[in-house]
Write a structure and sequence with these properties.
Blueprint: E1 2-8, E2 18-23, E3 28-35, H1 40-58, H2 64-84, E4 92-100, E5 105-111, E6 115-119, E7 124-126, H3 133-139, H4 145-150, E8 170-175, E9 181-185, H5 187-190, H6 195-202, H7 210-223, E10 230-236
Antiparallel strand pairs: 1-10, 2-3, 3-4, 4-5, 5-8, 6-7, 6-9, 9-10
Amino acid sequence: MKIIGCTDPGKVRKNNEDAWIHDPVLGIAVLADGMGGLNAGEVASQQAAEVILEFLRKAQSVDVESVAAAIEAANQHVFDLSQRDDELRNMGTTVVVWAALGRDRVAVGHVGDSRVYRIGTAALEPLTRDHSVVQTMLDQGYLSAEEARTAPNRNVITRGVGLEAEVKVDVAEVTRVPEDVFLLCSDGLSDMLEEAAIFELCRGVTGDGLAELGGRLVKAANDAGGADNITVVLVSG
């Protein structure tokens, strides 16, 4: 299994509040996009990612239930930290988790608006649905997809890890084949590039080209403005 990641602060922000972590032996990748004042976002994302990976390493088995439990454990950990330190008050983070369940299945868990895609032959296949104000407005028909891309509240999430003592986690089990390539990304990529543009950069990629593709995606997001931290994680095999 190959897992590569690229992260960049972008062109506007000085700090990088994104984090990613992985275990290629177990087949686990975690991406988090932190939020909060001062350095709190960096703390939230890194702590959440580390807690999730350690939880799954210790789990008796990795499945949809343990992925959900790992994210819930990260939520409790980040929330507790925020309550003990005024400088970390109100910090939180998005999270996406990709975990192999044998050779033909994968668990995908998430909270927030970071995303997981399968890179298909004709388009990106979204495997997550944003927990955001804009997604809710889209679902209810108040916004079109085009309006959603430029909506002023497009980065306001409705769920986050560490914001409250409990969090609802979305987790799903999907089938896969060895040739599949998956993309995890923070909104620093998806806000800067439309899905069609991301797919054109990803089209035809194989495991041997993951590192080069990661660099291309980050560069394209920066070329489009780099308004936020950019993190991509690519998984194959």
